[in-house]
């Protein structure tokens, strides 16, 4: 780990030094539009150390059913957060044994 910014994440057993290193080498393409979900996703990923590029992105994971019950703004935030967490989870699981 080279950046003290991620000290709290490194302390988590689920992340650790190796996981943070994987996050820092991960690149993700997030929708280039200005939807709230895209902005939330990009911010979460950047805050975790993931390199983010703007582009067409890919369709995120299937959302849990309860998200549909949220009001539109909350749904956008939940969608962006869920997409970011899915990227981070995949990065952390990659190479982990």
Number of domains: 1
Strand order of the biggest β-sheet: 1-2
CA-based gyration radius: 14 Å
- SS field, number of helical segments: 4
Number of strands: 2
**Looking at the structure, what is the overall shape?**
globular
Give the mean pLDDT.
Answer: 87
Amount of helix: 40-55%
Main beta sheet strand tally, sense and closure: 2 strands, parallel
SSE succession:
HHEHEH
Broad structural category: mainly alpha
Query: Termini distance?
Result: 20 Å
Residue fraction in strands: 5-15%
**Which runs of at least 5 residues are low in confidence (pLDDT < 50)?**
none
Structure description:
By secondary structure, this protein is mainly alpha-helical. It has one domain (4-93). The protein has 4 helices and 2 strands. It has helices spanning 7-11, 16-24, 36-48, 72-93; strands spanning 27-31, 51-55. β1 (27-31), α3 and β2 (51-55) form a beta-alpha-beta unit. α2 (16-24) packs across α4 and α3 runs parallel beside α4. It is globular. The model has no long low-confidence stretch (mean pLDDT 87).
């Amino acid at each position: 780990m080279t950046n003290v910014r991620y000290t709290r994440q490194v302390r988590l057993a689920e992340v650790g030094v190796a996981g943070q290193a994987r996050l820092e080498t991960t690149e993700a393409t997030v929708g280039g539009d200005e939807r709230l979900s895209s902005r939330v996703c990009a911010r979460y990923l950047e805050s975790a150390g993931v390199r983010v590029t703007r582009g067409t992105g890919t369709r995120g994971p299937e959302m849990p059913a309860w998200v549909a019950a949220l009001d539109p703004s909350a749904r956008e935030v939940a969608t962006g957060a869920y997409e970011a967490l899915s990227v981070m989870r995949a990065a952390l699981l990659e190479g982990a044994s």
